[in-house]
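Re: beginner question about structure tokens

> Can someone show what the tokenized structure looks like for a real chain? I only ever see the sequence side.

Sure, here's an example I had lying around. Input first:
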Amino acid sequence: MPVGNGHQAALISELVAGFGARPEMLIQILHRVVEQFGFVSEAAIRQLADELNLSRAEVHGVVSYYDDFHTEARGRHSIRICQAEACQAMGSAALTRHAQESLGLALHESSEDISLDPVYCLGNCACSPAIMINGRTYGRVTHERFDELVGAMGGDD
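And the corresponding structure tokens:
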């Protein structure tokens, strides 16, 4: 039974139907919800639970477990800074402080333009510290390189 905004509810129903309303497809459906709306609203969680015959707790648990899913609107651009051991050894803590100060955001915060999040491995350990901007990984990021990369984001969508 659709919940919340009628247009959003109808699109979610279509997504669910497209995956055969199979509960084991929840992660794939959630990815599509994020592609469509940018985040997974509380209304979407309730609707997905109803349409997939899952509890709200099950759907919310998946949403809260994976870094790709959020329950609030995110910035147009995503910046993730690796916090894993190799990156920490090469200065990711200082890079994180620099990012927070220069962007005016704490980790897990968003502005309309930027979301700043930790990530716990980008698979780029040999080139640490590593960051990911809008799905693209960069290695050996200094404070100056970070500022250059953020400055270059301006026209990207």
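Each token stands for a local structural state, so reading them left to right follows the chain. The mean pLDDT is 93.
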